[in-house]
Amino acid sequence: MLKEKLLELRQQALSTIDSADELKALQEAHVRFLGKKGPITEILKGMGKLSKEERPVVGQLANEVRQLITARIEEKRADLEARQLEMKLESEKIDVTLPGRKTAPGSHHLLASIIREVEDLFIGLGFSIEEGPEVEQDYYNFEALNLPKDHPARDMQDSFYITDDILMRTHTSPVQARTLEKHKGVGPVKVICPGKVYRRDNDDATHSHQFMQIEGLYVDHKVRLSDLKGILTVFAKHMFGADREIRLRPSFFPFTEPSVEMDISCFRCGGHGCNVCKGTGWIEILGAGMVHPNVLRMSGFDPGEYTGFAFGMGPERIAMLKYGIEDIRHFYTDDIRFLKQFYRA
Amino acid sequence: MLVSYNWLQDYVDLDGITPEDLANKITNAGIEVEHLNYPGEGLKGIVVGKVESCTQHPEAEKLNLCQVNLGSETVQIVCGAPNVAAGQKVPVATVGARIAGNVKIKRAKLRGEVSNGMICSLDELGFDHNYVPKEYADGIYVFDDEVPVGTDALPFLNLDDALLELDILVNSAHCMNMIGVAYEVSAILDRPIHLTKPQVEEADQRASENIQVVIADPKKVPYYGARLLTGINVKPSPRWMQLRLIAAGVRPINNVVDISNYVMLEYGQPLHTFDYDQFGSKRVLVRNAGENEEITTLDGQLRKLTNEDLLITNGEKGVAVAGVMGGENTEVSAATKNVLLEAAVFDSISIRRTAAKLQLRSDASSRYEKGIDRNRVVSAADRAAELLAKFADATVLRGVVDAGERTVPDRAITMPWQKINQVLGAELTLEEITGTLKRLHFSVETEGCAMHVSVPARRFDVTIPEDLVEEVGRVYGYNHIKATLPEGTSAHAALTPYQKARRRVEVLMEGTGLSQVYTYSLTTKESAASYAVRNQEAAPTQVIWPMSEEHAALRQSMIPQLINVVHYHLNRQMPNVKFYEIGKVFLPVAGEARPAEEEHLAGIITGQRNERTWEGEANAVDFFSVKGIVETLFDALGVSSQVSYRPSNRSGMHPGQTADILRNGDVIGYVGALHPGVEKDNDLNKTFVFEVALDALIRHGEPGITYQGLPRFPSTTRDIALVVKRKTAASDLDRVIRKNGAPLLHSLRLFDVYEGPHVADDEKSLAFSLVYQDPERTLTDDEVNAVHEKIIKACADEFGAELRG
Ligand SMILES: [Zn+2]
């Protein structure tokens, strides 16, 4: 009797479990068949009424049925949980090709990037960074640089004067004179001087009344022109590529003697000639020279004991060459569409 | 300076050296050849023809039918030039020829008559019309009779030449003449120079009988020489001279004027010719002009002089502004018979000042300004006399009448010859060094370690040993010098604390989305005066001669220029922009011409804080998002605890949305919204700005870092909401809470501000989160409660604050 009932219960339970399609139904089946008031518990409770022969048989069968139901429920639970997880994952599916939430950083100005690159290179070579006033005394801007009043290379028309004696500096060279003076005749002096300078020019594609300069100065015992050549070679390769070569051409600046212009082999054509180098294979990059003894003397250095070199370059020119920028005014118009292009510069 | 390759061959053998080679060598030795032009480039098929006959075209009054002998044949050419005539030898562009502008000449029919080519004007052969002599300006060019018919015409027009345009800097003024260039090329090529001494046949009559020279101030006029030439026949100068002048960019006028120009080009010595019969006396007196003394110059202008200007006079009245321009009263004309020729030396500074003041920069004045060869003055006068005798039929009176020093000695420079190697970093032998100097025609003697160099006066730019280093270096070639690295003391280098902090400011600004800009320091007077962080009492610093109103005064703030940048973007449909600038502002100092310079940081932000995306709406920039940028900066620089804010009323700013930024009580900047009126005037949307004095913020770099161990005991967090009057500043509550919470109050954060129906109309509720902590132990509730109560009581006492229920 009980045996039949157990077998029927087994059948019932398994079909209920199999038809359960969610965890809740499964839980109900568990309570219904295996709970404390469930039929199997009832049967086990009623075992005492059975004969000695029947008892172990029914007992064993009841246990078997319970184990089978338990196992089937666990099996089904795992199955349902897996299905549920799968559904959850499915429901959480997103279009991963949609754009992410970006923070849009601002861009560093291209000229600032170039200046920083030059600064970092020269710091590595043992140069400090010196800055000076943009409104300068005539003395530092001209006289201390071997450009006495009435020197033909000096033209009042080219400078923004504030008074007869005060002007917007026309180059960063006055920082040289000020730095030398500060060292009171004792070397070494090894500095890079970046900054804004001003000339009385009409703004057009190649002229700007305000622009940047970076000046370098190295004064010590026994500094040679060949050292200048060495340092400038390092600079050229760093800024324009490892295969660059340089050449020095004689030139004239009042504050250096001898004076040179530095050309680099064209980075576009490698020296064969193209429109960047105007067919010459060489591009003029900067002016340089050995510090004029008058400049050393005026700033308190003994030219018999010390020599030095100086060089000056224009970050705008470097930027224009490097990126093929056609108009110097872009640097000061500050169009965001221009600025953003040099985010990585 | 335009240098004719053909002319240069008069002095130096250029065999085997192409114009390109020459240009490169000159450039590499220090004088940049800016352009190399071939004036005959592209011309083809131009021959010398002879007009055998010339008759009027039957159908056209202004055209002529010319039978032109081209050597191999005689062809008919229709010619419209008014100056064509039988018997002339002319340049003919034959059928198939190319003339200037790459125009091809074809056989043509003009009003029924065949034309087999074209008789050319100089313009048609590519000459610049400005330099074409007047006699050929409106018609064809006519050769002299020596030119052989049927040959290529180009060499006879110097169109087989190459022109090198030299960029003459201050130190290369010695190459502002052909002889100077010849010396340079001779040194560069290491080839000899051929110079011929002028041959002057003088008459018996002495010039000194007719003229006398007096210099008032020998310091300003070291030398003045005069020659007298009589019986002159004014006419066009010879073809070769005209062509050389044209090549050099000088328009031929007549033989007298041309010869003085030609000698200036050749010798570098400016010459002046006076019509002797108009001179008005037998005495040249060179003196300073009187104050306001007047003279009418060659160009017909009445010039008013000062006593700084040098004037050539006839003893009484002015006849020329010395070295700058002659007077109209003594100008050489077609009728001139007798000429007084001046070859003088004037003080360069004086000439420079006068030329600048009168705005009369001429070939002559620029040579005086940059320097002339003191030892070539008399030779130049002789050369002119030689040419005037030859080409103007002049009789040269005996002698040069002069005052001052005719010649100066060579300059002696003594130096240890090894200095050249020391400065260059080269290893030249003594022979190489002296050899190089001798190529430059400097004489050299050595004596042990010392080298005595005597430098001729024509090289007035070489005065000190370093100049000789340069001469050797440039002629030897810097390319032969090996690159080395300095052997001196190795120096430690790093950014200064300020420079380092400034770089961090840049990184931070860019991290918060602001892009860096550079604007101009010079702006309008109005802009320059506005938006200064600290009120400026004096007017902005101004430049004396601004280029324009736009760049007339120095900015005291960067905000006005940043407003312009935003305006620019709005005009181009870019309404959401954020910029910052780091730069100098210029603050006037009482009693000083120079302003104080301060480095400031300024920012401007307008439009949406973030772009609108597929997820949802964008948020407009507001005061607190901009203030947040400034606060982030101060946090990052470690100075937030020293910074406070207070409401501010500033011109150009929104009176209710602007705060001064103070550091330890001093105003160092401000942040806020632009005044709506300013926004309207500049077509701006709602725009926020800030400006901070970086000097005041990071002059000594950033504060150091003090490490604190991690807390080992838990903290207790309590929130309170305080109801206060609306006008109560949150920062004041913050200050009182911190003061009363110390030392257990570890941190404080405002997390809610409420105004609305749940509080009174004039009240607001501020909710703070307070974190209590003791590094040494766990706090008990009683301990926390005690401090908490103290804080609440202090707020009640100071602000009437009540706990919100
Ligand atoms: Zn190239």
TrEMBL record, chain A:
It catalyses: tRNA(Phe) + L-phenylalanine + ATP = L-phenylalanyl-tRNA(Phe) + AMP + diphosphate + H(+). InterPro entries: aa-tRNA-synth_II (IPR006195), aa-tRNA-synth_II/BPL/LPL (IPR045864), Phe-tRNA-synth_IIc_asu (IPR004529), Phe-tRNA_ligase_II_N (IPR004188), Phe_tRNA_ligase_alpha1_bac (IPR022911), Phenylalanyl-tRNA_Synthase (IPR002319), tRNA-bd_arm (IPR010978). GO terms for cellular component: cytoplasm. Its EC number is 6.1.1.20. It is found in: Cytoplasm. GO terms for molecular function: ATP binding; catalytic activity, acting on a protein; magnesium ion binding; phenylalanine-tRNA ligase activity; transferase activity; tRNA binding. Residues 114-341 form the Aminoacyl-transfer RNA synthetases class-II family profile domain. Mg(2+) binds at residue 257. It is an enzyme of class 6 (ligase). CDD domains: PheRS_alpha_core. It holds the Pfam family tRNA-synt_2d. Its cofactor is Mg(2+). Coiled coil: none annotated. Transmembrane segments: none annotated. Its main location: cytoplasm. Keywords: Aminoacyl-tRNA synthetase, ATP-binding, Cytoplasm, Ligase, Magnesium, Metal-binding, Nucleotide-binding, Protein biosynthesis. Binds 2 magnesium ions per tetramer. GO terms for biological process: phenylalanyl-tRNA aminoacylation. Belongs to the class-II aminoacyl-tRNA synthetase family. Phe-tRNA synthetase alpha subunit type 1 subfamily. Tetramer of two alpha and two beta subunits. This is Phenylalanine--tRNA ligase alpha subunit. It comes from Sporolactobacillus inulinus CASD. The lineage of its organism: Bacteria, Bacillati, Bacillota, Bacilli, Bacillales. The gene is pheS.
TrEMBL record, chain B:
It is found in: Cytoplasm. Its cofactor is Mg(2+). Keywords: Aminoacyl-tRNA synthetase, ATP-binding, Cytoplasm, Ligase, Magnesium, Metal-binding, Nucleotide-binding, Protein biosynthesis, RNA-binding, tRNA-binding. Its EC number is 6.1.1.20. Mg(2+) binds at residues 461, 467, 470-471. InterPro entries: aa-tRNA-synth_II/BPL/LPL (IPR045864), B3/B4_tRNA-bd (IPR005146), DNA-bd_dom_put_sf (IPR009061), Fdx_antiC-bd (IPR005121), Fdx_antiC-bd_sf (IPR036690), NA-bd_OB-fold (IPR012340), Phe-tRNA-ligase_IIc_bsu (IPR045060), Phe-tRNA-ligase_IIc_bsu_bact (IPR004532). Binds 2 magnesium ions per tetramer. Residues 40-154 form the TRNA-binding domain. It catalyses: tRNA(Phe) + L-phenylalanine + ATP = L-phenylalanyl-tRNA(Phe) + AMP + diphosphate + H(+). Its main location: cytoplasm. The keyword Coiled coil does not apply. Residues 408-483 form the B5 domain. Belongs to the phenylalanyl-tRNA synthetase beta subunit family. Type 1 subfamily. Tetramer of two alpha and two beta subunits. This is Phenylalanine--tRNA ligase beta subunit. It comes from Sporolactobacillus inulinus CASD. The lineage of its organism: Bacteria, Bacillati, Bacillota, Bacilli, Bacillales.
